[in-house]
């Protein structure tokens, strides 16, 4: 039973009670101060859910913002969700009143499965979250730790160049679906960073497939659980929960042996003689954690697996999605690609194997290309949802305690009142004199764009994400000229999956600019 059918059945069942409640509902001062939105029925929520799927919410919100203004409300059953589309209101809410929105709403599907919320993205704003985030930032994402993985990045770059350079049928130049290659190379890198081991291709692809299937299933099939009480959904939608358990069980079967291998390596003093094993990994840090608020216990295997899944997903899908959007723009705008290539050539000696992390700091135009890609094509059009820890105001409207609040990232970065020709790809806007000069993606002083969120729950991986985007874009432009193919023209139509991807995947012609290495070791 899909969401509209479920809603219709609920309407028919609850309509008499709804009519009675609507007739006697008091129009109190508090309700009149709530943000505007479509009509709603008691117990059911906004009537728009009868004709709109919660997994395709963005077009609905764009219409509501155009009708009601930059703060709109939707109801899912008794739960109130507020969406904010204005950058100044977002700054006031997330930065100036940061603590009030630093919490997370519970994930309905996780609660139904009895899962722990002890993860960096899902934990409530408190000591457990601080411990987990501090561990991730200090022990894995700190610049000193990131440098330890330079050989891993170089390996992933060689994998990517080799896969992209493979000839097509008859040894003719291939026009690959580059997003799949980006995803594979990034997953190789993130698996190595997470588990400290360089796996072979079948092992990487098995984990990637299991993670991807789980992600897509969650995005497409689980939002409906937020619309109704658990007492209803756990019976009517039992098959979805069973499928979710099966997908999670498959992920556990693949990840737990890798976790146990690191656990055994720690017992041996970290002196593994395997050539494929790295000295440091994210899992090593998770094995050291003790939850002081819960009897000083270590993380359970299930909690470590969820953390690892988050680490892999956050670092792979968003980055590979953004890489495809940026390369699509460079294909469509060859003059911009040529300007970037000339900057790379002027910075890097021809005999140097790669554009290194140190080289990236000398390339302002590369930085501008990445920022423009993130502005025009943020890989996620919403941040992870926040929860109001107390009654607060946004834009003069009351946001009651417990309300879910989200922010329309793409709406802000494409706002024609804030950006000149926002749908034009123009890296120059981030150079001196441009309308994006000096933009700070952390949003500390002001928000112009927020692809990583802002405030206390800003993405912990912002720094490494920018590094990976700059590193791989620079090296792939240095390795290949990216050309548009007749009959496979670039199409910027969007499709919502876990991230917002190209509806028609990019398939360019890649012309090598320099001799290709054949080794991925």
What does this structure look like?
The model is unreliable at 3-29 (pLDDT under 50). Strand 1 and strand 2 (45-46) form a beta hairpin. This protein has a single domain, classed as Cytochrome p450 (Orthogonal Bundle). The protein is globular. 50% of the residues lie in helices and 9% in strands. With 521 residues, it is an alpha+beta fold. The strands form 6 sheets. It has a 4-stranded mixed sheet with strand order 3-4-10-7. The protein has a two-stranded antiparallel ribbon with strand order 1-2. The protein has a two-stranded antiparallel ribbon with strand order 5-6.
Write a short abstract of this structure.
It contains 19 helices and 14 strands. By secondary structure, the chain is an alpha+beta fold.
Give the total of beta strands: 14
Q: Could you tell me the mean pLDDT?
A: 88
How many structural domains can be distinguished in the coordinates? 1
**Beta-strand content estimate:** 5-15%
Helix content: 40-55%
CATH architecture: Orthogonal Bundle
Characterize the main sheet.
Answer: 4 strands, mixed
- Per CATH, the superfamily is Cytochrome P450
**Structural class by SSE content:** alpha+beta
Q: Given this structure, which CATH class is correct?
A: Mainly Alpha
Report Rg.
24 Å
Strand order in the largest sheet: 3-4-10-7
CATH fold label: Cytochrome p450
Anisotropy-based shape? globular
> Oligomeric form of this entry?
single chain
- Roughly how many Å apart are the termini? 49 Å
- The stretches of 5 or more residues where confidence is low (pLDDT under 50) are 3-29
Query: Tally the helices: what do you get?
Result: 19
